[in-house]
Amino acid sequence: MAIAVLDPDKSTVTILTELIEEMGETPCPFTDKDKYLSAISPKSHSIAVISDDFIDVIEGTKQVYQSIDVVAIGGRDRDECIRAGADHHLKKPFLADEFRQVLHVLLHSARAQGPSENGAFIAADRGMRKIIEILDKVAPTQAAVLIQGESGTGKEVIARYIHRLSKRSSGPYVGINLAAIPDTLLESELFGYEKGAFTGAYATRIGKFELANEGTILLDEVTEISMGLQAKLLRVLQERQIDRVGSKAPIAVDFRVISTTNRDIEEDIREGRFRKDLYFRLNVIPIKVPPLRARRDDIVPLASHFIAKVAKREGMEEKFLTPEAKDALLSYSWPGNVRELENVIERSMILTDGAGITAEAVTIGMEGGPNVMTEHVAVGTTIHDMEKRLIMSTLESVEGNRTKAASLLGISIRTLRNKLNEYSGKSQFSDASADENSAPE
């Protein structure tokens, strides 16, 4: 596997190329980003060293080829590069030994993990185990898959699982959220455009389908696109060719398509919002993911998984769920599904000081406020009383720490203090660890 190097400065590329050769590795040098983009591939490259002058290339490389480790080099802010997708950042000028050390760590990690990690689902629920059995059969084929389910149920996790187990796993995985892009821009995002195709098209741009060539493309929330674009998408799926905006000749593409939706697509078809012929193209293999409230057996195992994940990421000791906390998790309706559960566990891990996560900790921030499963609001309760109950319950759950309570409630400490004074003249809660005086208001 080679190490790609992209920097507009030729002397920098030459020096880094020599360092890579001295390490016994194969360099792949570039000073032109278009040539880099046409050559980069996880089949050939394990690491890409990219100048942070090309922040868009860093972001694009990591989005399309997650298995490639990206080392950003240059003068930009480190956090900006990390947010764009870089795994490491070296600020120029850096020592040759610093460069060698970073590459050594990345190369050692890649070889220890092997070419791919198939991963596994946390699935104690019988229905989810049946879905996984289907996925294991479907993944090695080229069949189109349509994944339906509520937001937060893990549809994209399933899509990535299919790609990892497919014959295309060494190729790119390209996802696009169709609901997040205005319809006027979506065609050029999907199919690309030629230089000069419209005002502002200063250079040719490759679309998502071309980026997914020899790999997998995920059409996230496919029911959100217009009827006109649906017709063009249908043609691409039938012909396996795309037309860049402004192009005179079609381009052949080789991809596998996975689609997701959180809507009732059959109802959209009946009401004329979605083409039936496109539905048949996308729905060769239908996967319907049940909401978390319908798979109770998965809740506690998933929570334990997220506890371990947060502990590893934050360098914390793993904590355990008390019996009361498990009961609270099991009795909640989980409108946000698995995504909400992960957020609840992360928050509980951070806010819990002891080894045991309590019911009070897990119910903070759940839809409806703390203790949403156990508190009943009587008819006729005033907004003032409900607000007071929410504030007092939150304070109790964090042992009177006003800074934590204000953060969870989304208000300033000054507002919290004024509310407490309003309720009782003077708050019964202390400023734990004197944190109020040190926190911004």
Number of strands: 16
Structural class: alpha/beta
The coarse overall form would be globular
Sheet bearing the most strands, described?
A: 5 strands, parallel
CATH-derived topology of the largest domain: Rossmann fold
Rounded Rg: 26 Å
| Broad CATH class of the largest domain | Alpha Beta
What does this structure look like?
Helix content is 46%, strand content 15%. The strands form five sheets. It has a five-stranded parallel sheet with strand order 2-1-3-4-5, with helices on both faces. Strands 7-10-13-6-14 form a five-stranded parallel sheet. Helix 18 (402-409) crosses helix 19. It has helices at residues 10-22, 33-39, 55-64, 78-84, 96-113, 126-138, 155-165, 183-191, 208-211, 227-239, 265-270, 276-282, 299-314, 323-331, 337-351, 359-363, 383-397, 402-409, 413-424, 435-438, and strands spanning 2-6, 26-30, 45-51, 69-74, 88-91, 145-148, 173-177, 192-193, 205-206, 215-220, 241-242, 251-252, 255-261, 285-288, 320-321, 356-357. It is of the alpha/beta class. The chain is built from 20 helices and 16 strands. The chain has four domains: 2-113, Response regulator (Rossmann fold, 3-Layer(aba) Sandwich); 126-290, P-loop containing nucleotide triphosphate hydrolases (Rossmann fold), CATH 3.40.50.300; 294-375, Helicase, Ruva Protein, domain 3, CATH 1.10.8; 376-441, Orthogonal Bundle (Arc Repressor Mutant, subunit A).
